[in-house]
Amino acid sequence: MERLQARLDSARAALDTLLELTGKKDVSRLHRDAAIQRFEYTFEAVWKTGKAYLLEIEGLNAASPKKVIRACLQTGIISEEETHLGLQMVDDRNLTAHTYHEKVAEGIYRKLAQYADLMRKWLSEMDKRAA
Question: Is the entire prediction scored with pTM above 0.85?
Fold first, then answer.
């Protein structure tokens, strides 16, 4: 349980750094690209926390981000609508290697506030259930 709590704390700290850069309009490319980088490491921290939560609390073994998201739907941590957004988030995370394409980078940046809200809710629900 201590290890899971450490993962939750680490994921929340990563999310806080992402929130510093989301929801702003007319940002520079540097700001946008920094926000996307923060999204990358925040997403990694959150899905891996979900994986640890599922194994430790729910007894489920899910080895990939999409499997973790679907298992979180099964256990009621996130809703069906949130699951669809989460799966889209995985796809966008996979596209972040292509931020040199302006349209890809701009599209991902526009979704970051919504993704951050989902990750905040996801972490909060796991934290509540693990307590």
Answer: yes
